[in-house]
Amino acid sequence: MTGLLAACLGRLPIGWLQLSHNKTRLFAAIAGVAFANILVFVQLGILGALNGTIVVPYNLFQADILLSASDANTLTDGSPIARARGFEALGVPGVADMRPLYIGNFDWYHAEGGSSNVQVYGIDPAAEAFLSPPLNRKIAQLALEDTVVLDEATRGLPNNSFSSISAETPHSFEARNRTLSAVATVNIGGGFSADGVFIAADQTFLRLFPARFAGAPDHILIKIEEGIDPTVVVDRISAVLPDTVQVRTLTDAAGDDQRYQTTQRPTGIIFGLGVLIGMLVGIVIVYQILSTDVADHLKEYATFKAMGYGHTFFLGIIFEQAAILAFLGFVPGFLISTAIYGGLSAAAGLPVEMDVIRALSVFIGTVIACAASGAVATRRLAAADPADLF
Prior knowledge:
Strand order of the largest sheet: 5-6-4-7-3-2-8-1-9
Helix content: 40-55%
Shape: elongated
């Protein structure tokens, strides 16, 4: 290690020699940086899973514009919107078609024991054009009463227990005092608001939720004519409909949903603060290690200072130590965090995955935090007078 650093730096690696001289302190510093990395990785992983699961429902649909009530901050909250608004939008130039979308949640109690909270999406079974490819080939099967497309990745279900479902071999089960038949499956998975998903015809949805009305869907999906800019049609529809209706492209609606849930919902705020706390923990730990090292070698540094070495020389040594600690702490932190991601994904069914961008971001942040700690740790040395230290 000493030879490699000497070749890279073009000088004796003083910082590494000082760190490695006290093995106990070195291992404590590496463990501290690794712990801070684990904290940041876990918080970012869960925050990333939250963002990922927010977008998944939007990806089920192939609409261009979404009409929602003005108080709808997410796909699943807010007031219903009058279906008549969709018919008004049909009169706007550039609008090709519209379909109401109904959304509800209920607890599905399994015959084998246990339960899963499922999110039900109700839509016209003739609306193939409004659904993503995995669904539009299956939606026509929902024209039969009390049939659903079941999410086989729903949390709480036995693994692969519904993989053989088809229109010829449906699976019947009880839910909300009705006998439902799953005639097809999709693989979506659970999120923070539900364990899984059902896709049902709008009439089946209304039978499952008798308090809901056909004239008051949660949202209205709009498709526009080919070759027209969606933002132009958004402006046209907004000019026709009252302020009680939000008119957004489906992409903008998904982005608004993500921003709201990550900045205003407690879950997003807590995990965002967790990232900040993890960074602060790492900065404090590295600062304590480096400031102690500076204090222990203050007389040696003062000797260099008396010989004419400038402050940049000492900063170079401290930054060398900070970079070494950042790298040696990042490697075990990354490996342990990857294992934790796998455990979280398996246990909670959340899409917690390590990716290159996240790993590079955390590594760069670790280097910057360690360098900042090192710069602060040299303040005492910068103010020290060599004559006062002997």
